[in-house]
């Protein structure tokens, strides 16, 4: 009996790009990673498609979703695309020695169960080599919390890296790691085999995705205060008022 896992014949990769400039070095880095990932998969007989989620144009919708607690329609579409992906390339610029606030805000809107066991290449760009550990200090714990499978090789690029061969070698190595994990079928086996053992914080993606503004109780004390009203007085006080 052959127990070697059967690799999927078509892989869907999603790039999450938090770069906001045009052109964006973060987008350029993620595009290079995506192309090398396609090449690595092709070498082992697996076709791949790549789609991008550019967070810059979604900044207003992301902010609105954070404030309301309910994903905007465009944010929902982006999250649904992540759910349908077999692998992710996560790329962010580094600001003030940390990952982009835009990237983190988008991540805060992702259901804890959405990305379980999905392979992820972690990448960042910055203006100084001093911040090279941001990828492993900030991005890796974030995606570990989301229970993904981050690749061993993380990628960080500064302006002087673009003309070096070393960056290209690291990109090829990370792409090879991604291809190996996808070819093994391990990610699929982990997600399918252990689903019942995970703590599902939000009760599943479908339930959360179906929420809408009609489901919000605007008569709670918190929501009344947030909308400029006053909280309900305690029951005893209401009785005395009558």
Could you explain how this protein is built, in words?
- The structure is a single chain.
- This protein is of the alpha/beta class and 242 residues long.
- It folds into 2 domains: 10-197, Rossmann fold; 217-241, no CATH class.
- The chain contains 10 helices and 7 strands.
- The chain has helices at 25-43, 59-68, 73-83, 101-108, 134-145, 165-184, 186-194, 205-209, 221-226, 235-241; strands at 10-17, 47-54, 87-95, 98-99, 119-125, 149-150, 155-157.
- Strands 1, 2, 3, 4, 5, 6 and 7 form a 7-stranded mixed sheet that branches.
- Helix 2 crosses helix 4 (101-108).
- The longest helix has 20 residues, at 165-184.
CATH architecture of the largest domain: 3-Layer(aba) Sandwich
- The proportion of strand residues reads 15-25%
Low-confidence stretches: 203-216
Total count of domains:
2
Characterize the quaternary organization of these chains. Answer: single chain
Question: Into which percent range does the helicity of residues fall?
Answer: 40-55%
SS content category: alpha/beta
Q: Any chance you could write out the topology, listing elements then pairs?
A:
Layout lengths: L9 E8 L7 H19 L3 E8 L4 H10 L4 H11 L3 E9 L2 E2 L1 H8 L10 E7 L8 H12 L3 E2 L4 E3 L7 H20 L1 H9 L10 H5 L11 H6 L8 H7 L1
Parallel strand pairs: 1-2, 1-3, 3-5, 5-6, 5-7
Antiparallel strand pairs: 3-4
Helix pairs in contact: 1-6, 2-4
């Amino acid at each position: 009996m052959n127990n070697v896992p059967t690799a999927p014949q078509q892989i869907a990769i999603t790039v999450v790009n938090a770069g906001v400039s045009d052109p964006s070095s973060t987008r350029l880095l993620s595009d290079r990673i995506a192309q090398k990932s396609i090449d690595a998969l092709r070498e082992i007989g697996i076709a791949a498609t790549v789609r991008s989620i550019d967070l810059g144009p979604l900044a207003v919708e992301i902010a609105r979703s954070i404030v309301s607690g309910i994903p905007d329609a465009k944010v929902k579409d982006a999250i649904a695309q992540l759910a349908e992906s077999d692998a992710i390339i996560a790329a962010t610029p580094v600001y003030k020695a940390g990952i982009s606030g835009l990237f983190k805000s988008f991540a805060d809107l992702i259901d804890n169960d959405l990305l379980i066991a999905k392979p992820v290449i972690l990448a960042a760009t910055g203006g100084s080599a001093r911040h090279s550990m941001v990828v492993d200090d900030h991005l890796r714990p974030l995606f570990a919390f989301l229970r993904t499978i981050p690749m061993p090789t993380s990628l960080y690029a500064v302006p002087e890296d673009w003309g070096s061969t070393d960056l290209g070698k690291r990109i090829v190595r990370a792409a090879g790691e991604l291809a190996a994990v996808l070819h093994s079928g391990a990610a699929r086996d982990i997600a399918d085999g252990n689903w019942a053992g995970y703590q599902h914080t939000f009760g599943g993606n479908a339930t959360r995705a179906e929420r809408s503004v009609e489901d919000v109780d605007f008569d709670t004390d918190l929501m009344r205060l947030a909308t400029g009203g006053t909280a309900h007085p305690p029951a005893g006080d209401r009785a005395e008022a009558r």
